[in-house]
């Protein structure tokens, strides 16, 4: 039997890793580290650093790196993602069968938290068929990018007694502002989905590389700072070869940008 732990590691600050995550790392027989190409080498470098710093000297945990399959571009987004998840599950299953033929405990370090716009739980659900045996899955929660964003800007996620919707850049472009939401958190934006919205009356809190040394923050009325965010985002992507950013949008009345005014 394989026991798989999906271990949330936060967004780039080693101090955000919980004690429960440290325990799960040290209890694993095998830790799998995905490589996403040279452009995203910072992400695997951080995982390597966590393993070096958090695995105890007496630990027998093996660390194995693998190349993450690429998602094929196509007009049918959901079908392409489904195929991609299947390819990843196949790689996970092969690695587990190779390195733990008699079963054991496997750890996967998940950026942020496995529950928030991350597909590791869905991929793990395919593993039983891939490994030919039973796979038990547990989740070690991690600090999410939304928590780091709101903490960095020193704001609450929601306006007083108002709902928040969490969505993606693609859906924001396609469907506009969600109905009945006073605040909208946007993730997985390839860049500038907020341009699809009328900017009047909206405030934005944007952050890139949250929790990392190269963290950047911008906030202000969307009409005033949208161009600045786009320019900064492009420059940072050019400089580092990759970017990971999210933002919170909120309808503002009376010139206020948070509950405290």
TrEMBL record:
UniProt keyword list:
Cobalamin biosynthesis, Methyltransferase, S-adenosyl-L-methionine, Transferase
Asked if the record carries the keyword Zinc-finger, the reply is no
Instruction: Please provide, alphabetically and separated by semicolons, the GO molecular function terms listed in this UniProt record.
Output: precorrin-6A synthase (deacetylating) activity
EC number per UniProt: 2.1.1.152
What GO terms in the biological process aspect are recorded for it? methylation
Quick one: which pathway? Answer: Cofactor biosynthesis; adenosylcobalamin biosynthesis
Question: Which InterPro entries does the entry mention?
Answer: 4pyrrol_Mease (IPR000878), 4pyrrol_Methylase_sf (IPR035996), 4pyrrole_Mease_sub1 (IPR014777), 4pyrrole_Mease_sub2 (IPR014776), CobF (IPR012797)
Does the keyword section mention S-adenosyl-L-methionine? yes
Output the SUPFAM superfamilies linked to this UniProt entry: Tetrapyrrole methylase
Q: Which residues form the Tetrapyrrole methylase domain?
A: 4-225
Q: What is this protein called?
A: Precorrin-6A synthase (Deacetylating)
Q: What lineage does the source organism belong to?
A: Bacteria, Pseudomonadati, Pseudomonadota, Gammaproteobacteria, Oceanospirillales
